[in-house]
């Protein structure tokens, strides 16, 4: 009979681990009167506070104002057997850094206190918004060129053998134009989908080189236009070179396009390193726009100008902003009608040891 091998006895840890401060979930322990007895570093960071500043206060009444009354009501209800709150959404405005979307759950603890659990669902909400954008683009924006193709192809089919050659050419031209429009929109929708992805293998990127490259492409595509294009040398960012070229391309192309009424296109790309950030500016002397409508500029399919003024599918600047956000940066704009527009781009700069000589 073989020897019986006893399983090893589990060894108890020397000290118990308090997981409160080691979870990715935001946590706070609340007293029945709403005072925060304890809060972990994750939740404090989401609220842009230190844990010490939150403990000993009813912090939710200032930091989570939209749901503060619900939290207080749920705390009061525990004495009567209430079950708390479950997955309550709240949005925190972080100013220029955008909004943070949170989801709250409040459950009772033994002894009368309550546990507040907070999940950051900002990325999920951004993905839901992206899905809505794509659905709108497919169902609404793409419908117009498809309808044009269908209508003029049907008219062509009805012409018969005695069709007028000029009419046929006109219909074919319209069909081709609509097909080009549909193809461009599909490409832009795919770009929008990819733009929010994190940078692939980030590294030092020569922004000045990319700027010169894009400006050369713009001039090659429109050689008849007089242009004064200036790119400051020695500008370096940290990120995905392909994505940053795409970002700059959207902004420079926008500057070129809305300078159509000018005798000479004037565009400047300059900037400077400030600490660990690169601050860039793309300036043009084009038609500009009324800053009252600036909040529309980065919203997909929201155009400030009509097609006759050079407006495209309305996704270019939205894609640029998504690319900036994916790099931990952002874009803001200043403009004046008939004076010009300046885009301010904030991006990570290379670590000091990777920065190329300036």
Structural classification:
alpha+beta
Instruction: Calculate Rg over CA atoms.
Output: 28 Å
- The residue fraction in helices comes out at 25-40%
How many strand segments? 12
Look at the structure and give the CATH class of the largest domain: Alpha Beta
Tally of DSSP helical segments:
10
CATH architecture of the largest domain: 2-Layer Sandwich
Distance between the termini: 79 Å
Contiguous low-pLDDT stretches (5 residues minimum) are none
Oligomer: single chain
Could you tell me the strand content as a percent range? Answer: 15-25%
- Mean pLDDT over the full residue set: 84
> How many strands, what sense, and barrel or not for the largest sheet?
5 strands, antiparallel
The coarse silhouette is globular
What's the CATH topology label of the largest domain?
A: Heat Shock Protein 90
Order of helices and strands: EEHHHHEEEHHHEHEEHEEHEE
Provide the number of structural domains.
Answer: 3
Strand order of the largest sheet: 2-1-5-4-3
Describe the structure.
- By secondary structure, the protein is an alpha+beta fold.
- It has three domains: 19-120, Beta-Lactamase (2-Layer Sandwich), CATH 3.30.450; 122-196, Helix Hairpins (Orthogonal Bundle), CATH 1.10.287.130; 199-358, Histidine kinase-like ATPase, C-terminal domain (Heat Shock Protein 90).
- 38% of the residues lie in helices and 23% in strands.
- It has helices at residues 41-46, 51-54, 60-63, 68-77, 122-141, 143-159, 165-195, 207-221, 241-257, 316-326, and strands at residues 26-30, 36-39, 85-93, 99-108, 114-120, 203-206, 226-231, 236-239, 264-274, 277-284, 330-336, 340-348.
- A five-stranded antiparallel β-sheet has the order 2-1-5-4-3, with helices on both faces. Strands 7-9-10-12-11 form a five-stranded mixed β-sheet, with helices on one face.
- It is globular.
- 26% of the residues are buried.
- The model has no long low-confidence stretch (mean pLDDT 84).
